[in-house]
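Researcher: We plan to redesign the surface later, but first we want a full-length starting point. Tokens attached.
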């Protein structure tokens, strides 16, 4: 029994090291999605007065979490984030188009929300977004960066496309389990606690 536990621990450590290595190898893709996200957020912040329709979308989202307690809210946030990150990564197989669309959409919404927060409570109120945002955004950037890289298999040599796709798919799933999922769990717990406390 003890030997089996040791072997499992070694296997998990190996998978984690492999995940870290793949993230480092994919840093250019991750940096690219961060730049796209920042540009989209700046757009949303700058042109917030023309993006009033986003407020209706936010109301719809808020109506889904209305009345939830801290645990229920944490579970809702976690499910939503896992689904968004996983599908964004997986759908990158279609030439990386879906992760980029997701980045632009989320960036614009964040910029718009930031403009509302600044307008209502001032610039310093944005600090409330940071505690969970750091982990959540890191997870999303990694997931969507790997999604874009996954779609890049099409640019591999003619005889290497399928092998490249299989390798990138395996590595992406491993990173999701070893790095992205734990980050999203941590982000959801912090966010659920903060929203419950700050009300």
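Model: Full-length starting sequence:
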């Amino acid at each position: 029994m003890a030997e089996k536990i040791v072997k499992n621990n070694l296997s998990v450590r190996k998978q984690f090291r492999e995940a870290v290595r793949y993230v480092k190898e994919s840093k250019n893709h991750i940096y690219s999605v961060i730049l796209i996200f920042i540009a989209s957020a700046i757009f949303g912040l700058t042109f917030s007065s023309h993006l009033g329709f986003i407020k209706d979308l936010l109301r719809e989202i808020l109506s889904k979490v209305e009345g939830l307690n801290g645990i229920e809210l944490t579970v809702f946030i976690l499910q939503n984030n896992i689904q968004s990150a996983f599908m964004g990564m997986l759908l990158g197989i279609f030439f990386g188009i879906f992760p980029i669309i997701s980045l632009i959409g989320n960036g614009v919404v964040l910029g718009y929300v930031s403009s509302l927060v600044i307008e209502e409570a001032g610039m310093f109120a944005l600090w409330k977004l940071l505690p969970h945002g750091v982990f959540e955004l890191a997870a999303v950037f990694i997931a969507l960066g790997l999604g874009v890289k996954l779609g890049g298999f099409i640019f591999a040599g003619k005889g290497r496309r399928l092998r490249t796709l299989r390798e990138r798919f395996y590595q992406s799933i491993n990173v999701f389990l070893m790095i992205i999922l734990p980050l999203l769990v941590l982000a959801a717990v912090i966010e659920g606690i903060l929203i419950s406390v700050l009300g």
